[in-house]
Amino acid sequence: MQRHVNDEYVKRSKREGFRSRAAYKLLEIQEKDHAIRPGQVIVDLGAAPGGWSQVAADLVGPKGDVIAFDILPMDPLPGVTFIQGDFREEASLRLLEDVLDGRQVDLVISDMAPNVSGVAAVDQPRAMYLCELALDFCGHHLRPGGGFVSKVFHGEGFDDWMREVKSKFGRAVTRKPKASRANSREVYLVAGNYHS
Known about the structure:
By secondary structure, the protein is an alpha/beta fold. It has one domain (about 25-195): Vaccinia Virus protein VP39 (Rossmann fold, 3-Layer(aba) Sandwich). Helix content is about 40%, strand content about 25%. Strands 3-2-1-4-5-7-6 form a seven-stranded mixed β-sheet, sandwiched between helices. Helix 3 packs parallel to helix 4 (about 50-60).
């Protein structure tokens, strides 16, 4: 808890009005990769408390649309349509189709992580399962040429998952933003030119 309170990005997020320190990870990725562009339709998986949605909504501007999914509640954000539910379930996906109203998704973003137990043999498979779900979501909703930004953890299953990503996207790189804690195994995949 003390580490969190003293964290420079936590302090900055409070000062600068971001919902979470995670916002800085996406901002740094954006600076390097320009994944988010004005007018895009973006789906944010596992969005609560809304740090990534907040950044995305600002970057897509009034002509864009951010649709945020989470099983947890999330306070409203300007420019963001929030769907509380599990994106694997039919009822939630119907709500998504209603919001999309025939439009295709330009970019899927995911900062999802499992509730950690501290046992790597349990936590890593859970984390990779969420990555697989996010990639599967892309397969059903992402337009050809679209992009994908996702948190992923180094460890068992990482290499296989990256191979699968590279088979579906023309470009795939990993980033370790400064806002990502140095001792964390998390990295961020940035993929583009979806073709599968």
